[in-house]
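Work Package 3 (structural annotation) set out to generate three-dimensional models for the target panel prioritized at the project kickoff. During this period the team completed the workflow that converts sequence records into discrete structure tokens, so that structures can be stored uniformly alongside our sequence database. As a representative example, we reproduce one entry of 118 residues exactly as it appears in the project archive.
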Amino acid sequence: MTISTEIAAPPDHSGLTRFYRDMTAPERRTFWACFAGWALDAMDFMIYPLVIGTIIALWQVDRGAAGFAVTVTLLFSAVGGWLAGYLSDRIGACACCRSPSCGFRPSRFSALRQSFTS
């Protein structure tokens, strides 16, 4: 039995974490802000499966109707995402967000505004 005296090579950071290591501080803050927005966006739908049993019991909703509501929610979420992506590519993301067809109008105190004085 021999004992190896080789020193292990340092870990290869060319994988999934390299992009994060190469970021500047503002880029990291942007990354985490985007991650939080994504998580909060998905939260409203992910709460539904947690409370579906209670909704069915309290409101006497048929299981098929509750399942149909989930299906419609997911389908129209995908359709809305594709449509907003197409519009963003054609007219620009800022113009798409300001459009009433997207259903989102930034208010005076929105984080999307460049200036809060106007």
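The CA atoms of residues 39 and 66 lie 24 Å apart.
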